[in-house]
Amino acid sequence: MIKPMTRMLALAVVFGFAAGTSPSAQEKAPAPVTPLKVQVVVSRSQGEKKISSLPYTLSINAGAAPTTANLRMGTKIPLMMIAGQPKEADGKALPQIGPVQYQDVGTNIDCIASTLDDGRFRVQITVDDSSVYPEETEKSGASSGHPSFRSFRLSNGLILKDGQTGQLAAATDKLTGETVRVDVTLTVIK
């Protein structure tokens, strides 16, 4: 027969509690979470002349395990779909009427952040940006009167400290010669 004291000690060992400790003392403290502000600036320039600079700001809570923030901003552009130019019996062209499809344009940003040692943070950014080419590009014969769409997609990571800025990428559009730059600034929210 097992004595009552021995039975309690056996139960404590089976359930993982050392003698003299309670279940709450055995639980792990949650990993610290650091709130961050991540600013992503997508800028376009033609040579030395800056054409546009669009800032996007995401808030994210970084911890030991990576966390995610997403931003979706855009619109749908209607496009008339035409199979051929219809004509009347006398040979005159009829107005073009056809089904409409919509093309998404805008900016999508995905951000993943996690903490490292010494106050550093790993920030992984994916930028997917699309837009309609400007009219002057269309007039140059690039699209013959129909809208043309450009796209830019980037996925890269940086290791940053509080207040630090890093450039994710710079790329030049083959058609227009515009250079697209993506800069990221990280700020710890206090």
Q: Briefly, what is this?
A:
By secondary structure, the chain is mainly beta. It contains three helices and eight strands.
Descriptive tags:
190 residues, mainly beta, 4-stranded antiparallel beta sheet, 3 helices, 53% strand
Protein architecture, described:
The chain is mainly β and 190 residues long. The chain has one domain. It contains three helices and eight strands. It has a four-stranded antiparallel β-sheet, with no helix packed on it. A four-stranded antiparallel β-sheet has the order 3-4-5-6, with no helix packed on it. It is elongated and about 85 Å long. About 9% of the residues have low confidence.
Number of domains: 1
Strand order of the largest sheet: 2-1-8-7
The number of helical elements comes to 3
Helix content: 10-25%
Task: Report the count of strand segments.
Answer: 8
- Which term fits the overall shape? elongated
What number is the mean pLDDT? Answer: 80
End-to-end Cα distance, whole Å, is 61 Å
